[in-house]
Amino acid sequence: MKRRILFLTTCIVITSAWLLACQQPTPPIINPPSPPATPIWLGLTGDTADVQGTTQAGTVLMGGSTDVDNAMRWMLERAGGGDVVIIRASGSTGYNDYLFSLGAKVNSVETYRINSRDLANNPEIERRVRNAEMLFIAGGDQADYVNFWRNTRLHEAINYLANVKKIPIGGTSAGCAILGRLYFSALQGTIRSEEALANPFDARIAIGRNDFLNMPFLTNTLTDTHYDNPERIGRHLTFMARTVKDTALGTPVRGIGVEERTAVAIAADGKATVFGSGTAYFLWQNGVESMPEECVAGKPLVWNRSNQAVRSYLIPGSAQGNGSFDLTNWSGVQSGGKAGFYAVVGGMVRAQ
User: Which residues contact 224 (CB under 8 A, 6 or more apart)?
Assistant: First the structure.
């Protein structure tokens, strides 16, 4: 009887050990999966096939707020029925259906959110941007665009589109602010006109020079937007004065300021037309000898030159496009606007 009990006990022990050995333990989770990344492709309206159209070059500088429909159509008509790409660092797909519904035939409109340098260096993003027949840079914060996009594959792709493929390219608000060869980067935050005029060496006045986008006809040109909300002529003149003070460009420093609900459309021949309900400001240093009289840290800006420091030509927009300004040399055909001068005395702007 004892032997039988011992035998049964031994069998039970051996069987239990065998069952334990056959079990497959759940492996430990050493590196749990990361949460889904922020989506970079925000959707497409239209046909997913890649269509290559015959494009016409052009640049649109839009001042922000409500988009200007006819300026958008102006770009879409130059896209040759191809594919439109929207790039941004924040926001969503608002442009997809809007642009596709404006009546100018294009194959598709798609949007990418590119909010890191890794994404801006992604080869697939670069490929999709290079394949575009129209590119539009949405609003946001231009400091993000400078931080995320400058000196990346995306940066190179945009310049390829502008100067080799020669497609229509536009931007609104922050997207417009980075299109000039000179640009206010906002890397230290934004600044109001009265603050800039009071101290032209305020740390927030961060001007990029010839190290980002290379749009045709915008050499030595600094763009600014939301010109009427708030008033920005003062800070724009200060940005120009700082550039004159800090550099020796050899040619006059220039600026294009665009009010909200307004757009400057620059055709392939360098002639600019103004769409919308506001005004575009074309500003240029009145000769390389027109230097600021006083542009130093902690003191109000003085850039007077007998009240003629900066030449100006102001063109009001219209629904169908108004005026003409020759950006090939800034001294050719000008029509539909009003010529004048700007000066700054003791941190106060004077116009005549």
Answer: 177, 184, 232, 235, 236, 239, 255, 256, 257, 258
Provide the CATH number for the domain around residue 157.
3.40.50.880
Query: pTM for this one?
Result: 0.88
230 burial level (CB within 10 Å; 0-12, 13-18, 19+)? exposed
Residue type, position 104, single letter: A
The band of 249, judged by pLDDT with boundaries at 50, 70 and 90, is: confident
Q: What amino acid occupies position 195?
A: E
Domain match, 187 and 115 both = no
**What is the reported pLDDT for 250?**
82
Q: Supply the pLDDT for residue 5.
A: 38
Chain centre distance of CA 248: 26
Tell me the pLDDT tens digit for each residue of 55-82.
999 999 999 999 999 999 999 999 999 9
**Both 200 and 154 in a single domain?**
no
Task: Say how far apart CA 233 and CA 23 lie, in whole Å.
Answer: 77
Please give the residue range of the domain that contains residue 144.
Answer: 39-59+68-173
Q: Which residues contact 184 (CB under 8 A, 6 or more apart)?
A: 142, 177, 205, 206, 207, 208, 222, 224, 239
281 and 199 in contact (C-beta within 8 Å)?
A: no
How many domains are there within the chain? 2
Q: What tokens does 171 get? A: 């931007």
Q: What phi, psi does 273 have (nearest 5°)? A: -125, 150
Per-residue pLDDT tens over the stretch 25-65? 333 333 333 333 456 999 999 999 998 889 999 999 999 99
How many residues does the structure list for the chain? 352
Please give the Cα distance from 352 to 346 (Å, whole number).
17
Element housing 222 (H / E)? strand 221-224
Run of H or E residues at 102: none
Residues 146-185, buried b or exposed e (16+ Cβ, 10 A)?
A: bbbbbebbbbebbebbbeebbbbbbbbbbbbbbbbbbbbb
- The C-alpha atoms of residue 284 and residue 182 are separated, in whole angstroms, by 13
